[in-house]
Every structure is written in structure tokens, then in C-alpha cells.
């Protein structure tokens, strides 16, 4: 049975978390006003970044976020350098931007410095982006077991080589390069100090630190004190990243660490308006968005329409992509399980529109339960690394040969 044949649906199961009476609802204030940020020729008046998320931060989602905070930095999901060099159509689709987007930020991922350099050359020659971020933070086993993502900064020579080559290609074109990395592989193999210094020396305009190790994956709470350490060590701006679920967290991170800006990942899933909240908070205002379910429903429909354009008119692909977003959009709202399941069965835009029309337009998320963790929260079972990876901080010739033979074409996060 399709969603359209089902009887009318009503909310019958509230998905409302318990109120925590110990939480103080008073907004937190910045202790010192934040300076606007400059990355090479790019101004970032509100130093907030949409952290790249594979499968999430394609242009339809970025456009929605950017509408709430027009002066931040909105980064596309990681593009595998080898796939871009091979002109893989899926990778090329991820490099697309909406006309209204600016600055256009792309993230490259790769292990082989020569391939990453070639990918950067394509970005520059074909005017694909205004800013390039480099991914050294991915914890996914299929990436780290090839020495990529968060495994890579352990090999300081390889890390420096990639950053140097990309900066060398991008800088003359006025395209700033930034690097994003984690604290390290685990507590015994911390890499962020060296990574930060190398990134700075090789010409990165800023760095982003996700304050977790690979072993921590997305579990527990990120250790913001690590961000403070890096801020104290570097002259270039540091974006703090990890567990910002609302504007107050963003302010708290800045107050606690002195970071020049914040990067938001899971906290904006289903809540693009968090960028408006952070913008207000950074400007000293207590104004916060509190959208009704009717307003969120309108965003869902708009998101579905933009995704249809992203998939060149393929509504089925669009609404399938939309599924995870709908689950996030509805989180905390009193919407029943049957309705949520019906969204998961949509096959076209009309199905989405019909379901949205049956939502209670006046419903709201209960106060003080909005800024809660969402998305992935699990720990890694085991960190997968190439054989002998931790034996030395430098790559041997054999190691490089082994690594560069088979970069994954599609390193899904
Ligand atoms: C679904 C998902 C996909 C991600 N994809 C990327 C990616 O493509 N590139 C990247 O550098 N980080 C990626 N990340 C990591 C986030 O950018 C961010 O660093 C991390 O989620 C921590 O921030 P948060 O606590 O605000 O979510 C991803 C995270 C998630 C949950």
C-alpha cells in the first residue's frame, strides 16, 4: 500500500523527551565579542561553519541553512579526490552549488598527495569553489584502514605533503585552504598539535578541530579543552567542532576555548535555523527560533523540492534522500510513529505534500528539550589502520606504494 492509499493519519505517539528540571534555560552570553573572520580573500562575518557531512550537506541542505545565516561558511560533503580526477558523475554532482551560494566551499579527501593535488587543480582550473577544506577527520574503517581521514595526520610527512601541494595550487588562485582533523587516533596517539602546526606552516588559512579521537568515533562528549590548547598554540583561526546542539553551546565553546569560530555538524540536522540562533547569540541577542510544526512542514516540502532539482527531476531519489532529514525534522515534535513511517514510504513530492498537510500546524517542540544530541552518537568498536601504521610517524617508501595503489573511489562516511 502506498502512503496515498492509507487512511488519514493522526498523531498518536508523542516523541517528546523528558524535561530536565536541572537545565538552566537562561541564554549564555559571549564573554568577548567575536571578530569577523577572514580566510584569504573571503570574509566570514559570522564565524560559523556548516561542518561537511556526507549524505547531508549537498546544496539543497546548504541553501536552507544559508538562508538562516547568510554570512557563515557552508561546506559541501567530502569529495574523494580520485573520484573527482576520474570525473565520476556522482562526485561531480556533489561539487555542484546553487547560484545563490557564496562563498562556495568544497571538501577534498584523499591519501595520495599527487591525486589530491590533481583534484585541487581541477577545482581551481574549472572555478568549482572559492574555498577548499581538506578532510583529515573521517573515522570510518574503510577510510582509516587505507591510512585516510583521521588516520592520516599520524604520518606527518604525508599530511604535510598533501597540505603543501593543495595550498600551492589554490593560493595563487586566491582560494584559501583549511584543514579539518580530530584530536588523534586514540588517547595514546594524539596528533592534533603537530597537525595544527604543520597546517599553519604550510599555509592553511584556518583549521577545524573535532575534539574527539578516531576511537571515540561519535560517542561520549567531545573534549573542548583540546580546542583551547590548539587555540593557544596557533596563530591562524581555529574552528571548534563537536557537540554544539544549540546557540548556547556555541557561545559556551567560544567562551571556554577562545576559538575564532564554530563548526556545526549533527546539531543542524533537521534544524537549519540553528544558524540564525547562533548568529543572534554571537550578536548578543537572545532571539531564538521556535518554529511550529506547520513551519517545519513547509521546510520539509521545500527541501524535497530542492532535492528534486539536485537529482535532475528524479522525485523518487529526492524523497528517498529526504527520509533521514524528515526523521530529524520531526524529532521532538508530537508526531506518531505511523506518520513517521508513512514519510519513509513516500515515493514522490505529492506523497510528501499530502503527509505534511496532515501534520498539526500549531504543534511545537516543548521548551528546553530542543537543543539535545541528535544523529550518530556511537563509539567505535575498534580503529582500523594499515598494517604497522603506528610504528613510525613517517611513511616508508613501501608503505606509500602499498597505500596509493587503491584509494577507495567512494569513501562514504
Ligand atoms: C553523517 C555524517 C557525515 C559526515 N561527513 C563528514 C565529511 O564528509 N567530512 C568531514 O570532514 N566530516 C564529516 N562528518 C563529521 C562532521 O563534520 C563533524 O566533524 C562531527 O559530526 C562532529 O561535529 P558535531 O558534534 O557538531 O556533529 C560527518 C558526520 C556525520 C554525522
Automatic annotation (TrEMBL):
Cofactor requirement: FMN
Keyword Oxidoreductase attached: yes
InterPro entries xref list: Aldolase_TIM (IPR013785), DUS-like_FMN-bd (IPR035587), DusB-like (IPR004652), tRNA-dHydroUridine_Synthase_C (IPR024036), tRNA_hU_synthase_CS (IPR018517)
One Pfam family here: Dus
Keywords per UniProt: Flavoprotein, FMN, NADP, Oxidoreductase, tRNA processing
UniProt EC number: 1.3.1.89
Stretches the record annotates as Disordered: 1-20
Protein name in UniProt: NifR3-like protein
Organism: Bifidobacterium choerinum
Amino acid at each position: 500500500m502506498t502512503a496515498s492509499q492509507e487512511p488519514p493519519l493522526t498523531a498518536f505517539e508523542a516523541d517528546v523527551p523528558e524535561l530536565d528540571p536541572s537545565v538552566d534555560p537562561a541564554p549564555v552570553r559571549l564573554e568577548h565579542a567575536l571578530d569577523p573572520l577572514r580566510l584569504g580573500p573571503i570574509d566570514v562575518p559570522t564565524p560559523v561553519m556548516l561542518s561537511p557531512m556526507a549524505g547531508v550537506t549537498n546544496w539543497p541542505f546548504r541553501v536552507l541553512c544559508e538562508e538562516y545565516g547568510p554570512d557563515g561558511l557552508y561546506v559541501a560533503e567530502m569529495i574523494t579526490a580520485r573520484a573527482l580526477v576520474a570525473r565520476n558523475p556522482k562526485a561531480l554532482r556533489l561539487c555542484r552549488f546553487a547560484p545563490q551560494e557564496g562563498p562556495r566551499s568544497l571538501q577534498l579527501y584523499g591519501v595520495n598527495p599527487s591525486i589530491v593535488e590533481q583534484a585541487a587543480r581541477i577545482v581551481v582550473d574549472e572555478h568549482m569553489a572559492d574555498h577548499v577544506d581538506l578532510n583529515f577527520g573521517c573515522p570510518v574503517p574503510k577510510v582509516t584502514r587505507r591510512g585516510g581521514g583521521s588516520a592520516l595526520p599520524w604520518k606527518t610527512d604525508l599530511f604535510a605533503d598533501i597540505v603543501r601541494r593543495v595550498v600551492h595550487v589554490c593560493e595563487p588562485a586566491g582560494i584559501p585552504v583549511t584543514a579539518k582533523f580530530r584530536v588523534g587516533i586514540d588517547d595514546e596517539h594524539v596528533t592534533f598539535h603537530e597537525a595544527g602546526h604543520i597546517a599553519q606552516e604550510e599555509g592553511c588559512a584556518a583549521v577545524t578541530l573535532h575534539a574527539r579521537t578516531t576511537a571515540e568515533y561519535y560517542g561520549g562528549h567531545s573534549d573542548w579543552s583540546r580546542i583551547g590548547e590548539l587555540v593557544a598554540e596557533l596563530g591562524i583561526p581555529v574552528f571548534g567542532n563537536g557537540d554544539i546542539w544549540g546557540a548556547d553551546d556555541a557561545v559556551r565553546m567560544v567562551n571556554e576555548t577562545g576559538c575564532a569560530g564554530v563548526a556545526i555538524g549533527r546539531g543542524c540536522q533537521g534544524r537549519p535555523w540553528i544558524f540564525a540562533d547562533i548568529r543572534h547569540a554571537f550578536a548578543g541577542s537572545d532571539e531564538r527560533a521556535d518554529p511550529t510544526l506547520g513551519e517545519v512542514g513547509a521546510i520539509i516540502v521545500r527541501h524535497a523540492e530542492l532535492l528534486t532539482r539536485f537529482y535532475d527531476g528524479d522525485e523518487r531519489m529526492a524523497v528517498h534522500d529526504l527520509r533521514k532529514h524528515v526523521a530529524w525534522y520531526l524529532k521532538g515534535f508530537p508526531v506518531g510513529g505511523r506518520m513517521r513511517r508513512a514519510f519513509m514510504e513516500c515515493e514522490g513530492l505529492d506523497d510528501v505534500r499530502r503527509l505534511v498537510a496532515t501534520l498539526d500546524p500549531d504543534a511545537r517542540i516543548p521548551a528546553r528539550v530542543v537543543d539535545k544530541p541528535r544523529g550518530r552518537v556511537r563509539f567505535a568498536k575498534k580503529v582500523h589502520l594499515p598494517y604497522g601504521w603506528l610504528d613510525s610517524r613517517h611513511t616508508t617508501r613501501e608503505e606509500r606504494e602499498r597505500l596509493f595503489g587503491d584509494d577507495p573511489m567512494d569513501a562514504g562516511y
